[in-house]
Amino acid sequence: MNIKNSVDLIESYLDLDRKPVGIKFFFDKDEFDKFEILQKDRKVTYCNSVQLASKGRSMKLTKENQACPNGAFALNMIDVPEPIANGKGRFSKNIYKSPEVSKSINDDMLFIKERPAGIVVMPLENYKEEPDVVIVVGKSFNIMRMLQGNAYFNGYTDNLRTVGLQAVCQDLTTYTYNTQDINISLLCPGTRLVADWQIDEIGIGIPFAKWNQVVEGVKETANPFERNKNKESIEKRLKERGLDVSEIKFNENYDDGSYSGGKIDND
Length: 267
Prior knowledge:
The longest helix has 15 residues, at 140-154. This protein has 13 helices and 6 strands. It is of the alpha+beta class. The protein has helices spanning 3-13, 29-34, 46-53, 69-74, 82-85, 88-92, 99-108, 140-154, 167-179, 189-194, 208-220, 222-225, 228-240; strands spanning 21-26, 59-61, 118-123, 133-139, 183-185, 201-207. It is 43% helix and 12% strand. The protein has a domain at 3-76 and 111-220.
């Protein structure tokens, strides 16, 4: 399926509040310069650029645009500062119990290895060529459904790692880029401040190589996992986009007849 079709499908099968965001790294300056969107004219945190793209904005970013040092070194726009690398920096702020624990956190993170000339951050639906990573931030139910979509083809998601720090830049972007596997993030206090995510939002990073599988898996698992109320909404969104609704089956779920006591009423 093409990129636009994949976005139409995921936005039909899931009630997303934000657009899926595509991230593309450029390691050749000429290619980056030729990419036909405007470069940001001021500094912005990387995670805020993702938040802006989830609402429809598109931008190119270079080292000069980086407003957050953590995002900048995760994306290899700058070197990792020595106090972060040796653990003393975050230990001094009482984030971790010891410099050793603090150092281990940084050691376990996976940053971009090659220095990029620039990065494009924009709604996935706007891409004509494949991005490297897709990020979706939204309600936990929707993140669960995308994990189920991945599991339909690939089984258990056993590579998930997160620590409540460098959530968008590392958890969802560079870790996903390096492993070429899906990761989730509960986000972190920094990105919740500067990017203004909703308190109940979490994120998922998906390598584009797996994106179409995830979308198809979400579609294939709609009947067993979605309840009738959600299926009604899915059917409505599919019709609005002129897409096929014939595969939606009501009154069918994977757990039909499984529960001997039924739901417990709250008195």
